[in-house]
Amino acid sequence: MYTLISRSVGVQIGLGLATLAADRMMHAHKKTTVLLSLLGLLAACSDSGPGDAPPAVTYQNSVRAIMETRCLACHLPGGVAPFALDDYDKVKAFAPAALAAMQSGRMPPWGPDPDCHRYEDERLLAPGELEAFQAWVAAGTPEGELADYTPPAQSQAQVVDLGAPTLQLEPSAAYVPDPSRPDDYRCLPLGPAFEQEMYLRTAHVLPDKKKLVHHVIVYLVAPQFAGLVESLDAEDSGPGYTCFGGAGAGQATPIAGWTPGDAPPRVPSNASIRIPKGARLVMQMHYNLLSSEPEPDNTQVQLWLQSTPPEFLLMPRFFPHLGLDIDVADPASKHTRRFINTSDRPWTIAATSPHMHLLGTRLRTVRENADGSETCLVDVPRWDFSWQQTYVLPPDQQMVVMPGQALRLECTYDNSEANQPVINGERQPARRVTWGEGTLDEMCLNSIVLVEPYAPLPEAQDVCSDFQPCYDQCMAGNTPRTGCILSCGGNTGCAGCVLPGLFGELAEECGVQANEVLTCLESCGLEADSTTCVSQRCGSSIVAFDICANPHVEAGDVTRPGQACGVDL
């Protein structure tokens, strides 16, 4: 079997890339760390005499292994933490503060409830580790002898040693965020089209001006839309082009990202994301200027690639609840959406990356079982926007969602007056909040990585070539625009290209209506005659979305859903 790598994404939107890691020895690791942690606290083993004192806890015989296991994913030189803890002198200097953070539960930061599911590289303290660190501080932080050090089975100090990246890409020029937009979304093309099919093992986003960067998503744009990236870049002054809700260029898949709390990536052993020949990469930057002045940003992306096909393919997918409508001053606003597997193949979930904004308090995702029970995939009971990441399931605990089964996404928000964000020293007034990509908007999203055995890519087809004549004829009959997209796209697959852009750009204005359409489409996907089901069951929700969407479409607020797919809506 295979194992996974861990890194933040979210948004990726998470934005981030879940990949595969080296083989694990979790049980042996836990035994090792517990043994190391208890040194100095337990009596000597059988070869010790009754009068022997237990060995003193030192950095080398206990604390070093705790740091490497629980802390060094962030506290390395150049890591996301503000200081490093990778040697004795540094740990000693921060020992009192580190102990206080451990005792309060603030460190190591770990959001998921372990009673829901277990993940790779958990930063939970093992039994005895807190006591060992406390005893070390009380003893005066002795270093001990190097000969007493035993490396742990899983050392986070090793996860960033990836070697040189295959490619390091950056935009054509630094971009200065637009001060007229508190939330500026900019799509920046990265490098030329790929000359051959490649496989992405892992990626690392290097944000330049972290005080401005809200999140980053790197999109893979399908080969048939690579030329559109060039034209969009040329039409807009400055590097890149304004974008919202995605890459703005047809079929685009998120393959990497950065969010606050991002951790270093791991190298996969036998799974990768496929990059087809002719594909382009586009980096969507979300800059937030609510509390910082704009300045040139030159965020870069490192890629580790291989040309040999892997054993397994990783496929990131978004599971969003677009219909958020959070009431003013509601301290416990809960929102739920079900996602049904309407395909004829199981979903095998390798990683999960939950995402909300500043008002979120809890995010939970479960699988609904046939007997009425549920199996928990992820539960973050105390949401913290500053600590988001991808959680990788151990190989023997990956979740399978069979055709007909559903995932249920639950998000809870505190929109009370006391929980509003503070901007420039002033707490903002409570207001009605809906789905949106702005910092003061909200999201309810789980970006999930599915894994399947490798298969060659089928010959590329222009799925929208027959769409335009059908759509034009349909619209001449006064059918709702969304209904025409669905009916004409059903046989060609073009609806899968047009609808995400249309729904994504109107998520703030028409998110509730879009959510109703998507929910109905998923339920009809299980029917033998899905076309009849859509026309009979989804008609009212399609009309409601059209009533909401058409004024924005006519006004030009929806910029590119048709252009991105090569059709004229």
Task: Describe the protein's topology.
Elements: E1 4-5, E2 11-14, E3 19-20, H1 26-38, H2 59-70, H3 88-93, H4 95-104, H5 129-138, E4 167-169, E5 183-190, E6 198-206, E7 213-221, H6 226-235, E8 241-242, E9 252-258, E10 271-275, E11 280-288, E12 300-306, E13 312-320, E14 325-326, E15 333-340, E16 347-355, E17 360-368, E18 374-380, E19 391-392, E20 399-401, E21 406-413, E22 422-423, E23 426-427, E24 433-434, E25 445-453, H7 467-476, H8 481-489, H9 495-505, H10 507-524, H11 530-537, H12 539-554
Parallel strand pairs: 10-13
Antiparallel strand pairs: 1-3, 4-12, 5-8, 5-11, 6-10, 6-12, 7-9, 7-11, 13-25, 14-24, 15-21, 16-19, 16-20, 16-25, 17-18, 17-21, 22-23
Helix pairs in contact: 1-2, 1-5, 2-5, 4-5, 7-8, 8-9, 10-12
How does this structure look, described?
The protein is α+β, with helices and mostly antiparallel strands. The chain folds into 4 domains: 23-157, no CATH class; 167-314, Sandwich (Jelly Rolls); 327-453, Jelly Rolls (Sandwich); 467-565, no CATH class. Helix content is 23%, strand content 24%. It has 12 helices and 25 strands. It has helices at residues 26-38, 59-70, 88-93, 95-104, 129-138, 226-235, 467-476, 481-489, 495-505, 507-524, 530-537, 539-554; strands at 4-5, 11-14, 19-20, 167-169, 183-190, 198-206, 213-221, 241-242, 252-258, 271-275, 280-288, 300-306, 312-320, 325-326, 333-340, 347-355, 360-368, 374-380, 391-392, 399-401, 406-413, 422-423, 426-427, 433-434, 445-453. Strands 4, 6, 10, 12, 13, 16, 19, 20 and 25 form a 9-stranded mixed beta sheet that branches. It has a 5-stranded antiparallel beta sheet with strand order 8-5-11-7-9. A hairpin with a 5-residue loop joins strand 17 and strand 18. Helix 7 packs antiparallel against helix 8. It starts with a strand and ends in a 15-residue tail after the last helix.
